[in-house]
Each structure stands twice: as structure tokens, then as C-alpha cells.
Design goal:
By secondary structure, the chain is mainly beta. It has one helix at about 1-20, and strands at about 25-30, 30-35, 40-50, 55-60, 65-75, 80-85, 85-90, 95-110, 115-130. The longest helix is centred in the N-terminal third of the chain and has 18 residues, at about 1-20. The radius of gyration is 19 Å and the shape is globular.
């Protein structure tokens, strides 16, 4: 009976591991293409800088376009990172430093099987004028 229960438990872990394979995408990490898993994160905090940074975004035709992107960091990070996208539900105003509680969801692009991480605002923790 113990062996049957153990086999059932191991099968459950194996099948649950297979169900997350759909959330993988290929990214270039340190110059090398790698498969990474996009996971749902229910809540984490980020600080948004009071000014946007110049960044390069990929246009719908595949060309690179210079744009303005939000800069963010987590509490333990020293440097900011540019966010190539938006935070759904968040309205940015320049010259304010924000602390946000956000969540990440793995979304599939319409018309393709490409999985993208999407950030969604849970709440604004603070908004401080700079």
C-alpha cells in the first residue's frame, strides 16, 4: 500500500511538472539563447524611478525603435532596470517615486504560442514627489 501511495505521489509531481512547460519562452541571457520559465507571482514590491529612461523596443515589424521606459528596482537592488512594457492599471506621473505592489502573470500573445510576463498593479503603496 505504501508503494502504491508513493507511486501516486511521484506521478502527481511528474504530471504537475509537465503542465508548466507551456509557460517557457526563449530569451537571450548573457549572449546565449536560453529557455526560461515565466511563472505567476501573486505579489512583489518594486520601486519606480521618478524619471523614465531611453530604451530600445521591438516594433510590430521587428525593427528596433527608441522609446521612453519606466525604470524599476526591488528593495534589495542598488541599480534600476528598464521595463520594456507597462504595468497594467498603473498611471505613471513624472517626478514622483512610487512603491508598488504588483503581480506577474504568464500570458500568451494572441495568434501565437509565445508566453510573456505581464505585470499588473495590486496597489500603490506610496507616491513621493521628487
Amino acid at each position: 500500500m505504501k508503494k502504491l501511495a508513493l507511486a501516486a505521489l511521484m506521478t502527481t509531481f511528474a504530471l504537475s511538472g509537465c503542465s508548466t512547460m507551456d509557460n517557457e519562452r526563449t530569451m537571450v541571457v548573457e549572449g546565449q539563447p536560453m529557455n526560461v520559465k515565466v511563472v505567476n507571482i501573486p505579489s512583489f514590491e518594486v520601486e519606480v524611478a521618478p524619471r523614465k529612461a531611453v530604451c530600445d523596443l521591438t516594433a510590430t515589424d521587428g525593427s528596433m525603435v527608441e522609446s521612453q521606459c519606466l525604470q524599476y528596482r526591488q528593495n534589495y537592488q542598488k541599480n534600476y532596470t528598464t521595463l520594456n512594457g507597462n504595468i497594467q492599471g498603473f498611471t505613471y506621473e513624472p517626478n514622483y517615486r512610487y512603491m508598488l505592489d504588483i503581480r506577474q502573470e504568464a500570458m500568451t500573445e494572441e495568434g501565437s504560442d509565445v508566453v510573456q510576463p505581464v505585470w499588473i498593479l495590486n496597489k500603490v503603496i506610496s507616491k513621493t514627489a521628487e
